[in-house]
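JOB MANIFEST
job_type = single_chain_structure
chain_count = 1
residues = 173
[input]
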Amino acid sequence: MKKLILLRHAKSSWKDAQLSDHDRPLNKRGRQASPVIASWLMELEHAPDHVFCSTSVRTRETYAMMQDVMTALPAAEYSAELYHAAPDTMLDLIRTAPKDAECVMLVGHQPGLGAMTRVLSRERATRRCERAFQHFPTAAAAVLEFDVEDWGQVDYAMAKFVDFAMPRELMDA
């Protein structure tokens, strides 16, 4: 069984209109949300042993802040291809994950992550998780499982949707 975590970057700042979209950092809310989702993942033992991350500033900062909470997280493999990637691009990258990686995390962007969640799970999920299909908020995480031995075997409509959370709900709980 292989586990995949799809994580959207935390809330970014629009304060500096001169910055390109790729270079926008996290805002205050985003810096608060990153450790919250990291704690949730850790609590449920969803700890990745391989991480793919977009090269945008906000995805890098999200992951760095998660590492402050989940100290055993591996160094991320940064990929420019993940910046606003479509599901096919994400799937190609996931298939390159090391065979011995049991849990892979992909840190990326919308609308790609929501679309990826839908096509991987064929839109089958518990009521609590199906929210990810309509709206995949900032710093939200979807956890899926695949009954495969190698990441190269992963394909669309193969995933079992296991869990979904967004920091705003976790902070209100």
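[summary]
The beta strands are 2-8, 50-54, 77-79, 103-108, 141-146, 160-165.
The chain has a mean pLDDT of 91.
exit_status = 0
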